[in-house]
């Protein structure tokens, strides 16, 4: 019987080595199961970003729609079983992780456990008609459910600029930046552009990261995507192949894990769906309006409002913007160069005054988003009241006006 007052539920897997393609995975190589939450979307914009797998409104990642929250990992037993507790009523999915911290196989759908509920599966992507054939209780089920070990702190929505970019800033940008030979091949600076930042666009566009994004629909075999299939992971783990370069780079185990984990959870970028001050602008993220981008295109001859050219505008160092390369530098205020530079500097100033969610967790919601958030919190409050009442076997009376700021005291469970 479910305990509706509980804050968590329980999952088990009988044998992670059973399932589609898992015969390729050596027994004993899976060390952990990672639990990732895909939080609900509460905000939207009319302008959208399309990285190739559909409309994102606003832009969230190169070709995926979701933000992510890593809840933690649990060890997998030698017989392939695992039994663990997960916060109830969270939309989560699971990944199998090897001893290098690399994802071997991943769910691409999700599941939810109700308060106090215990549910499980045979393996990973196993045939849905398959049942458990065992003459003994799996080792994990002979113990209490494991607790999730956190990923470098409390669970939080994953931000590329907060979790991954600092690694590149410490170890890579001294070579991989503008005006450097290595930067011409791959620029890993964190300068902000119309939707993302420079390193994110470079890694995704140039194929250094292989992830599935929002497709394809078919089940993918183990090792076929993520860090096991990504060139960036190979460089991080094995080096550049140049002893003179590699001797100067000293990544810590945490540095490596941050990069590999980011790849393995489908390379997200934004931590939040909120667009703040820029919800009506292109992609739901640009600090420049559609009219301003059109004018910038007229001045530079570069289609900066089109997806392939979003990195041509640099709001961190406007003078480095690639779209200015075809213009003759001039100090004359009415010159095309100065007009274009002024537009980009205007975007920089707006971001300084009203940061995007990729810049700080202290970003401000737009008024429309604030009202949406207020409604969301109200509905969550009602759900919690009803859940507690059901757990206590009581009836509750909800007000007719569900937009009222407070619930009457007699509806709240003690």
Write the layout of secondary structure elements.
Blueprint: E1 8-13, E2 30-37, E3 49-50, E4 55-56, E5 69-75, E6 82-87, E7 92-98, E8 103-106, E9 118-121, H1 160-163, H2 165-171, H3 181-185, H4 198-205, H5 231-238, H6 243-246, H7 253-264, H8 290-300, H9 336-353, H10 367-392
Short recap of the structure:
This protein is α+β, with helices and mostly antiparallel strands and 414 residues long. The chain has helices at residues 160-163, 165-171, 181-185, 198-205, 231-238, 243-246, 253-264, 290-300, 336-353, 367-392; strands at 8-13, 30-37, 49-50, 55-56, 69-75, 82-87, 92-98, 103-106, 118-121.
What would your notes on this structure say?
The chain contains 10 helices and 9 strands. By secondary structure, the protein is α+β, with helices and mostly antiparallel strands. Among the domains are: 8-142, Immunoglobulin-like; 368-411, no CATH class. Helix 8 (290-300) runs antiparallel to helix 9 (336-353). The longest helix has 26 residues, at 367-392. It is globular, with a radius of gyration of 24 Å. The protein starts with 7 loop residues before the first strand and ends in a 22-residue tail after the last helix. The model has no long low-confidence stretch (mean pLDDT 93).
């Amino acid at each position: 019987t479910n305990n509706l007052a509980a804050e968590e539920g329980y999952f088990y897997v009988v044998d992670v080595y059973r399932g589609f393609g898992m015969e390729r995975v050596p027994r004993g190589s899976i060390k952990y199961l990672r639990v990732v939450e895909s939080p609900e979307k509460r905000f939207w914009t009319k302008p959208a970003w399309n990285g190739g797998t559909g409309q994102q409104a606003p832009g969230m990642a190169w070709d995926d729609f979701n933000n992510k929250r890593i809840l933690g990992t649990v060890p997998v037993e030698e017989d392939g079983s695992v039994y663990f507790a997960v916060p109830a009523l969270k939309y989560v999915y699971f990944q199998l992780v090897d001893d290098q911290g690399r994802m071997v196989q991943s769910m691409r759908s999700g599941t939810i456990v109700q308060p106090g509920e215990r549910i499980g599966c045979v393996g990973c992507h196993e045939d849905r008609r398959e049942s458990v054939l065992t003459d003994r209780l799996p080792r994990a089920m002979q113990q209490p459910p494991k607790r999730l070990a956190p990923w470098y702190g409390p669970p939080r929505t994953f931000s590329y600029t907060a979790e991954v970019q600092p690694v590149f800033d410490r170890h890579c940008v001294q070579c991989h930046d503008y005006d450097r030979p290595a930067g011409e091949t791959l620029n890993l600076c964190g300068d902000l552009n119309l939707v993302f930042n420079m390193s994110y666009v470079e890694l995704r566009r140039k194929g250094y990261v292989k992830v599935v994004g929002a497709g394809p629909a078919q089940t993918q075999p183990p090792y076929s995507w993520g860090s096991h299939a990504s060139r960036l992971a190979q460089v991080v783990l094995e080096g550049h192949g140049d002893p003179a370069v590699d001797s100067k780079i000293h990544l810590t185990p945490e540095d490596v894990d941050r990069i590999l984990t980011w790849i393995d959870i489908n390379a997200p970028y934004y931590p939040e769906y909120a667009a703040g001050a820029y919800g009506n602008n292109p992609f739901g993220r640009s600090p420049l309006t559609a009219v301003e981008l059109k004018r910038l295109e007229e001045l530079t001859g570069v289609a900066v409002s089109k997806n392939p050219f979003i990195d041509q505008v640099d709001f961190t160092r406007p003078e480095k913007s690639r779209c200015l390369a075809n213009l003759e530098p001039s100090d004359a205020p009415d010159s095309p160069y100065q007009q274009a530079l002024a537009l980009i500097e205007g975007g920089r100033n707006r971001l300084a005054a009203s940061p995007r969610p990729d810049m700080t967790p202290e970003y401000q919601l737009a008024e429309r988003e604030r009202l949406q958030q207020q409604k969301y919190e109200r509905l969550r409050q009602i759900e919690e009241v009803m859940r507690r009442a059901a757990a206590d076997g009581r009836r509750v009376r909800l007000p007719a006006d569900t937009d009222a700021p407070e619930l009457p005291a007699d509806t709240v469970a003690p």
